[in-house]
């Protein structure tokens, strides 16, 4: 292959929804007068169960469950913030130059990913999507990536995963994939030391460097 088939995470990598969603949680923590700790932030990033992590943390520290009205308010804040989330730097160029040899592999629901890709004008660059609707187990399990490899019809050595979180990195490695990490915040780079490379943004990624015959 001239370049590997690209298997990209979505939230926080292609679209800046990870930052937007975290800011919505920060809004709720501030509203309730509770500091959002680095440990809880780390537990939420790249985790399809991130909301449960935050809700359990708040319940423990408030001494009561989060009320329905508070939870609704947070989701409304998330919707507003995510609706304005931009594509990450370099995402459009990377997908355009992949010429169809790229797919999204995300634990998020299909409708969420589809809606944001179409809003950003990026959907037509992708061969297919593999989302949390497609498998029972999500990242860090390898199931989503294994399904993506099967749909692409390529071996792991002819593909390259691109992730922004330790959870995604573990999933890619468990599927036998090479993985380049592009954290959406610089502080996250330290947790991605096991990646083949850690880049500042997608504009730095040259897929040609990861051709199977150049390993």
UniProtKB/TrEMBL annotation:
Domain of life: Bacteria
GO MF annotation terms: sugar-phosphatase activity
InterPro entries linked to this entry: HAD-like_sf (IPR036412), HAD-like_SPP (IPR051806), HAD-SF_hydro_IA (IPR006439), HAD_sf (IPR023214), PGP-like_dom2 (IPR023198)
UniProt cross-references to PANTHER family, sorted A to Z: FRUCTOSE-1-PHOSPHATE PHOSPHATASE (PTHR43481), GLYCEROL-1-PHOSPHATE PHOSPHOHYDROLASE 1-RELATED (PTHR43481:SF4)
Protein name: HAD family hydrolase
């Amino acid at each position: 292959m001239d370049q590997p088939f690209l298997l990209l995470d979505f939230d926080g990598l292609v679209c800046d929804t990870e930052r937007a969603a975290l800011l919505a949680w920060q809004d709720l923590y501030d509203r309730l007068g509770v500091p959002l700790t680095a440990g809880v932030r780390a537990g939420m990033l790249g985790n399809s169960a991130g909301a449960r992590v935050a809700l359990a943390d708040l319940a423990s520290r408030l001494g009561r469950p989060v009320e329905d009205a508070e939870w609704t308010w947070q989701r409304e804040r998330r919707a507003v913030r995510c609706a304005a989330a931009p594509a990450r730097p370099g995402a459009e160029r990377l997908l355009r130059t992949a010429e169809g040899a790229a797919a999204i592999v995300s634990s998020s629901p299909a409708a969420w990913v589809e809606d944001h890709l179409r809003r950003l004008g990026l959907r037509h660059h992708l061969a297919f999507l593999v989302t949390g609707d497609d498998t029972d187990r999500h990242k860090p399990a390898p199931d989503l990536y294994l399904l993506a490899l099967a749909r692409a019809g390529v071996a792991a050595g002819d593909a390259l995963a691109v992730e922004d979180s330790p959870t995604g990195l573990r999933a890619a490695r468990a599927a036998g994939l090479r993985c380049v990490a592009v954290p959406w915040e610089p502080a996250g780079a330290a947790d991605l030391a096991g990646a083949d490379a850690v880049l500042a943004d997608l504009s730095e990624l040259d897929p040609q460097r990861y051709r199977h015959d150049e390993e």
